[in-house]
Amino acid sequence: MPYVNVRITKDGVTSAQKQQIVEEITQTLVRVLGKQPKHIHIIIDEIEPENWGFAGMLTSEYRQEE
Fold first, then answer.
1. Overall number of domains in the chain
2. Residue 64 above 90 pLDDT?
3. Is residue 37 among the annotated active site residues?
4. What is the pLDDT of residue 10?
5. 2: nearest Cα among 20, 32, 55
6. Cα Rg of the chain (Å, integer)
7. pLDDT of 65 over the 90 cut
């Protein structure tokens, strides 16, 4: 039973985009590993930009510098 956890920053990702992510990851696991779609679980966690840090700063700060 594959379990995939996708973490993204919460910044306007649409339901249609999330559906596409789930469909394409599922198709990959079916094609590469031969798994049945009914056994594949995909969780999308949306993280607030101020709760995601990299390169020594919060994503919210990094985006202000862009």
1. 1
2. no
3. no
4. 93
5. 32
6. 15
7. no
- Domain with 14, as residue range(s), is 3-65
What pLDDT, on a 0 to 100 scale, did the predictor assign at position 63?
A: 87
Question: Domain with 38 in it: what CATH number?
Answer: 3.30.429.10
Place of tokens 């056994």: 39
Look-up: residue for tokens 């840090």?
A: 53
Evaluate whether 48 touches 9 at the Cβ level (below 8 Å): yes
Cβ atoms 45, 8 nearer than 8 A: yes
CA distance 48 to 32: 32
Over the stretch 11-53, which tens digit does the pLDDT of each residue have?
889 999 999 999 999 999 999 999 999 999 999 999 999 999 9
Q: Which of 1, 2, 24, 53 is flagged as catalytic?
A: 2
